[in-house]
Design a protein that fits this description.
Layout: E1 6-11, E2 14-19, H1 30-44, E3 51-56, H2 76-80, H3 98-108, E4 113-117, E5 121-122, H4 124-127, E6 134-138, E7 143-144, H5 158-166, H6 168-177, E8 180-181, H7 183-188, E9 194-196, H8 201-215, H9 218-230, H10 237-251, H11 255-265
Parallel strand pairs: 2-3, 3-4, 4-6, 5-7, 6-9
Antiparallel strand pairs: 1-2, 7-8
Helix pairs in contact: 1-3, 5-6
Length: about 290
């Protein structure tokens, strides 16, 4: 599949998505948004993809929104002339934040996702990675939730994701100041898992990915990802108990559970036969799809 602003490469059951506007430090555009949403949707349905790695081309991960339009970069009425179209404001879809569309697509993807920060990631360049599952960084990386310094607020649903990833106090500190900070501070604050020399970053990301590919059931991982993310806001542990009880009941009867036990007892590597595309539990998805309104 051909994309304009990203590279899409599958090898050894791992998809590497590379943000590919290096001349602009991979600054985020509407086309990059469309490419990313399509890529995550496609990958989520492809049983030959077990894990997704996201990185950037050149010396940056993503410099945030492309500011080429100057002061009206974030003024949608001026840029898209939406305010001149009669009745358009009766439909809230036109005002939806593009970064949020991307993070919701990532949130709904059933495959585990690793962010490999090869360089600076600011604004949407970092908020789009918050619903990813594992984040590692090069020594060249920098981070910044710079919205208050641009007269904006955190976007891409990051007011939901960021406090859950790093805690409310660290989230407030970083978003109030809008300052750019080091990978060491990002690691200390819980935003990233580890820091690596630039030439070892993707090797480490693939090492993490292959551990998942070689040892785990695709259906188990897909269910686990959705359970942990979707139940993060549940108001009582009973909500988790309802889901995991049904999942254990259904998966316990399946071929993967049989293979998982037998391969362990026989001291061999497992060969899980079930596919995410057709073997998820009957009650999946258990959540109600949310609408923007």
């Amino acid at each position: 599949m051909k994309f304009e602003c990203i590279l899409y490469e599958v090898k050894n059951k791992v998809l590497t998505i590379t943000l590919n506007r290096p001349e602009r430090l991979n600054a985020y555009t509407g086309q990059m948004q469309a490419d990313l949403i399509e890529a995550f949707d496609k990958a989520g349905k492809d049983d030959d993809i077990r894990v997704i790695i996201v990185t950037g081309a050149g010396r940056g991960f993503c410099a945030g929104a492309d500011l080429g339009a100057g002061g009206n970069t974030f003024n949608r009425e001026v840029r898209n002339n939406k305010g001149e179209t009669e009745g358009i404001k009766d439909d809230p879809e036109w005002m939806r934040d593009g970064g949020g569309r991307t993070t919701l697509a990532i949130f709904d993807c059933p495959k585990p996702i690793i962010a490999a920060f090869n360089g600076p990631a600011v604004g949407v360049g970092v908020t789009m990675t918050l619903p990813m599952d594992i984040r590692i960084a090069s020594e060249e990386a920098k981070f910044g939730f710079v919205f208050a310094r641009r007269g904006l607020v955190p976007e891409a649903a990051s007011s939901w994701f960021l406090p859950r990833v790093v805690g409310i106090n660290k989230a407030l500190e970083w978003t109030f100041s809008g300052r750019v900070f080091s990978p060491e501070e990002a690691k200390e604050g819980g935003l990233i898992k580890s820091i690596h020399p630039a030439n070892e970053l993707l090797e480490e990301a693939n090492k993490i990915a292959q551990e998942i590919v070689e040892n785990t059931s695709p259906v188990s991982v897909a269910m686990t990802r959705q359970m942990l993310w979707k139940l993060l806001g549940a108001d009582h542990p009973m909500e988790a108990h309802k889901v995991d009880s049904r999942a254990i009941y259904e998966l316990g009867q399946g071929a993967d559970a049989k293979e998982g036990v037998e391969s362990f007892l026989e001291k061999r590597s497992p060969k899980f036969p079930s596919k995410v595309s057709k073997d998820m539990p009957e009650f999946y998805p258990w959540w109600e799809e949310r609408k923007f309104k």
